[in-house]
Amino acid sequence: MIIEPRTRGFICLTAHPVGCAQNVENQIEYVTSKGKIDGAKKVLVIGSSTGFGLASRITSAFGSDAATIGVFFDKPASPNRPASPGFYNTAAFETAAHKAGLYAKSINGDAFSNEIKEQVVNLIKQDLGQVDLIIYSLASPVRTHPVSGKRFKSVLKPIGENFTNKTVDFHTGKVSEISINPAEGADIENTVTVMGGEDWKMWMDALQEANVLAEGVKTVAYSYIGPEVTKPVYRNGTIGAAKDDLEAKAFTITEALKTIKGNAYVSVNKALVTQASSAIPVIPLYISLLYKIMKEEGVHEGCIEQIQRLYSERLYAGDLSLDEKGRIRVDDWEMREDIQERVVKLWASATTENLSEIGDLEGYSTDFYNLFGFKVPGVDYTKDVNEMVSVPSIQD
Q1: What is the largest CA-CA distance in the chain?
Q2: Helix H or strand E encompassing 131
Q3: At 340, which helix (H) or strand (E)?
Q4: Has residue 330 been placed in a domain?
Q5: Cys-Cys link to 39, which of 7, 306, 316, 340 (CB 3.0-4.6 A)?
Q6: C-beta separation of 195 from 239 below 8 A
Q7: Tens digit of pLDDT for each residue in 21-65?
Q8: What is the pLDDT of residues 173-208, one digit of tens each?
């Protein structure tokens, strides 16, 4: 079939298998071009099919020749209905890994569930024995709790008072004002339950109890802080409460891993176009201004550049450069004082009329479509493609 992008708000309803595969190949080429990293050799990536999770799996495999197990929750294709992008990404990754002689298997299912945790434990026991790095990179808006069976939904809201500021519709370039009502009732608790650190801790407990963690194991979860302009709706909002919980759990997990000399870390990463970030008001405008400045300064990074730097210059370089709260910071270039000062100035003057000049809305839009395999250089979108792609290690 010929597959074209069909969007609804911040979601694209279709994905292109060839475009997704090319994206994966581009990331592999970047990692291999940077040379080998003396990193982990047996890696579990929870949330492995897109964004930072996919970049982590690619960096582990093609940077350190690691065997990888990926856990993701994506929709396979059916006739005339494309799969979700994460499914196509995983198929392309596994194919490339196997071609390179690397072990790569994947499990498609709800990572919050006890059943998937048990499947992963059994697969590690069967094939790898133990793992020495666990990346936790889940970004789901809902979670069914494995103990209570209750379904929780996260919300994007400020805490305490209304938030009003600029935002942009990145499809049209229209800059407008948006107001968001504050969290109420169980909004904060629900968001923390979905996006906080409880599930990360549950994963680590399950893996430790099963004795599938190697001595000296590392585990890393991803977080974000961001600038002053996004704080009311992000870091000081409901999501921020969840990130606070995630970051606190790193210390709890490290304490539990003491017997095997393990450590848990939170890596604070840069603002990037992901399916999750596209849903957050204000963020698209901030990113489009940030991209313009960071590209001019020669310090712009995408997911793969961020994670390759995390591995090569922090995790496996002997110097984690932790901040005062014990976090790894690879948002250091984004948060440079000179860059943030320029963002603040541009933010004040941003309008529908001038955004294409002062910001990089085109770059934002391209990155958004790239997530789904569209607008990828070198791909002929007029060609008929086979949507029925399968992940080699997953049998229907």
Answers
A1: 59
A2: strand 131-136
A3: helix 337-349
A4: yes
A5: 316
A6: yes
A7: 999 999 999 999 999 999 999 999 999 999 999 999 999 999 999
A8: 999 999 999 999 999 999 999 999 999 999 999 999
Q: Is residue 66 part of a domain?
A: yes
Q: How many domains does the chain have?
A: 1
CB 110, CB 171: distance < 8 Å: no
> In 138-245, where do the E strands start and end?
142-144, 151-153, 163-169, 174-180, 213-223
Residue pointed to by tokens 């901040």: 323
Question: How far apart, in Å, are the Cα atoms of 51 and each of 46, 48, 54, 58, 100?
Answer: 12, 8, 6, 11, 22
Residue in the block written with tokens 């003057």: 349
> Does the pTM of the predicted model rise above 0.90?
yes
Q: Cβ contacts of residue 139 below 8 Å, gap of 6+?
A: 47, 51, 195, 274, 275, 276
Catalytic status, residue 234: yes
What's the CATH number where 14 sits?
A: 3.40.50.720
Helix (H, G, I), strand (E, B) or coil at 321: coil
- Residue-number span of the structural domain to which 233 is assigned: 7-156+187-279+302-336
Q: Mean pLDDT throughout 287-311?
A: 97
Residue pair 163/232 in contact (Cβ under 8 Å)? The answer is yes
Identify whether 320 is part of a domain. Answer: yes
- Please list, residue by residue across 288-319, b when 16 or more beta carbons sit within 10 angstroms of its beta carbon and e when fewer do: bbbbbbbeeeeebbbbbbbbbbbbbbbbbeee
Is the residue at 164 inside a domain? Answer: no
Catalytic residue, chosen from 234, 265, 286, 291, is 234
